[in-house]
Design goal:
7-stranded mixed sheet; 10 helices; about 35% helix; globular
Length: about 250
């Protein structure tokens, strides 16, 4: 006698009919599994069973990345940023050997060799509350000032951009001046002409340093385990979403 087969769940299709298949795992449950992996930095296969199959978590993570879901969420929660003062900086992240052992033809261009070995650099533009507005990753040896050219579109007339000496360039200052914005960037020591610089206002730049400290609480961000650069950038955006949501909750 053949063993009885377990019946499949009957699900309603959009047209009102019946379709056969396994019930979809709840999105909230899967999100909790994705954030668990973000916080611990563990491999996807180690996600606890209470969050559903780990394959479901990684598949939805990738599917929603490709569909731009994470980008839309970050854009929605960051619409309320304070744009009067914005700060820009970068932080280098050590690349784990699991992320660096991919084949040369598929190796990400956002893994570079610097003084600390194989690293990826996170670039962030934050508002006056230290909340992220624009995020970007490059190779570890990338120059901060050149990487900032496509990150300052949110700096508009009347705004002030705070940055350290790595961003001191005539090109950046001229770009901001053309928009009616002001660059409060610490000048390089070899500058011949004296530039306007407000030291008291510059002290607020520590907020961007605090932002990097916050996202590095998530182990999947503090060390790069992802072979793909777009997956690692998505992890950074997820950590930023959590920071924004907590800030919004504290304001309500």
């Amino acid at each position: 006698m053949l063993p009885s087969r377990k019946p499949l769940n009957c699900l309603k299709s959009p047209d009102g009919g019946q379709s056969r298949g396994v019930a979809r795992v709840d999105d909230r449950r899967v999100l909790n599994g994705i954030f668990w992996r973000l916080r611990t930095g563990a491999p996807w296969a180690d996600i606890p069973a209470r969050y559903g199959p780990h394959t479901t978590c990684v598949n939805r993570f990738n599917r929603w990345r490709k569909a731009g879901v994470w980008d839309r969420i970050l854009s929605a929660v960051s619409k309320a940023y304070d744009g009067d003062i914005q700060m820009i900086d970068s932080s280098s992240i050590r690349v784990h050997q699991h992320a660096a052992n991919s084949k040369k033809q598929t190796r990400s261009r956002c893994i570079g060799r610097s003084r600390g070995g194989l690293t990826t650099k996170i670039h962030a533009l934050v508002d006056a509350c230290g909340l992220p507005i624009v995020l970007k990753i490059t190779e570890g040896q990338a120059h901060d000032g050149r990487s900032a050219q496509d990150m300052i579109d949110t700096v508009e007339r009347g705004d002030v951009l705070l940055a350290d000496r790595a961003y001191d360039s005539n090109a950046l200052r001229q770009t901001l001046a053309a928009r009616g914005a002001r660059a409060n960037v610490k000048p390089m020591p070899n500058r011949v002409a004296a530039l306007q610089f407000n030291r008291r206002l510059y002290r607020k730049r520590n907020l961007v340093e605090r932002f990097f400290n916050k996202i590095k609480h998530y182990r999947a961000v503090a060390t790069r385990y992802d072979k793909r650069d777009d997956n690692f950038l998505t992890s950074i955006k997820l950590a930023s979403i959590r920071i924004w949501l907590r800030f919004n909750e504290s304001m309500t």
